[in-house]
Structure formats: C-alpha cells, structure tokens
Prior knowledge:
By secondary structure, the chain is an alpha/beta fold. The protein has helices at 24-39, 62-73, 90-97, 123-134, 154-177, 186-196; strands at 11-16, 44-49, 76-82, 108-115, 144-147.
Amino acid sequence: xxxxxxxxxxxxxxxxxxxxxxxxxxxxxxxxxxxxxxxxxxxxxxxxxxxxxxxxxxxxxxxxxxxxxxxxxxxxxxxxxxxxxxxxxxxxxxxxxxxxxxxxxxxxxxxxxxxxxxxxxxxxxxxxxxxxxxxxxxxxxxxxxxxxxxxxxxxxxxxxxxxxxxxxxxxxxxxxxxxxxxxxxxxxxxxxxxxxx
Length: 197
C-alpha cells in the first residue's frame, strides 16, 4: 500500500524472485516493506512480482522494461527469494542479469531469503548480497533470513529485524538521497553504518 509523504521521500521497491504467484516470499517481503515504511517515511512502495513477468523476461516487453527502470530508480530496494538449490532462484538471477553494471548505484538494498532449513539461511549473505553490491547497491544491514518454521511468528521476526536495522538503513538512504526526512541523529547512524560494514 503506497505511503503518502513529502515528494522528496525515497521510493521503496520490492522485487519478488519466487516463480509462484501469491507466494510466501511475496507475503514476507510485503510485510517487511510495510514495517520498514513505518520506520522510514517513503513516498511509495512498489511491488515487482517476477512470477507475473517470467514469460516476458527475454522478450522486448514494456512490462519488463518498466520493472527494470523501477528497480534502477529505487532509493530503498528489497530483493526477496526463496532459497533454491542453496542460492536464489534462476528467475531472480535472470531479472538481475538484465540490469547493466552499476544500475543500482544510489540504492540501499536489503537481501531477503526464506528457507526450509536453518543452514540455508546464509544464502542471502553468501549469494544475494554480492550480486546487489556488484550492481552498485549499498547493503549496510545483514540480510533478512527467515526459515519456514518462523512464518507463524512473522510479526515478531520482522519487528526484531527492523528495530535492529532501521537506523543503518535510514542513515544509508539519507547519505544517498540527501533528504532531511532521515536526518534524525545522522551522526550516530553514520557511525552505525560504518560499524556494520
């Protein structure tokens, strides 16, 4: 649901890499985006569900071009995938491969993974974070990883992650956008970003 704030407010874009429509990945990422928007005033939340674009990815299609443009213009980007064969989905990889090098420069990104087993929860850090950094994004916080058994307590899990990481996300977005909306004790938050690196 779009948030109404000042026109200078940053844009939050969510990319869902699950090939199944209406997936738990979509539910998780949307919930996380709304909770982050409670902490960081954003102009809008745009959801890009790649399951609806899958058959058009390799065609000259305006929907894919619009999704790529939205991702490249995001100030804050949530990129979510189920863990698939120990990494992220081929659908998400195919979409990210369409972005030119440096396309995410200026964006603060949050890698999100959902896995069946705890030992797969590191996929966000090991595989998704590096590709986002390679595309130019800043990834100041740890990846958000959820295992399936935590889904019934999603509100607790999401709240805990957001409370821990909102300050570094706010500082990173402020550094990229220069907006005063995020200037709440930026000096302290910049210290937190440096510590997180």
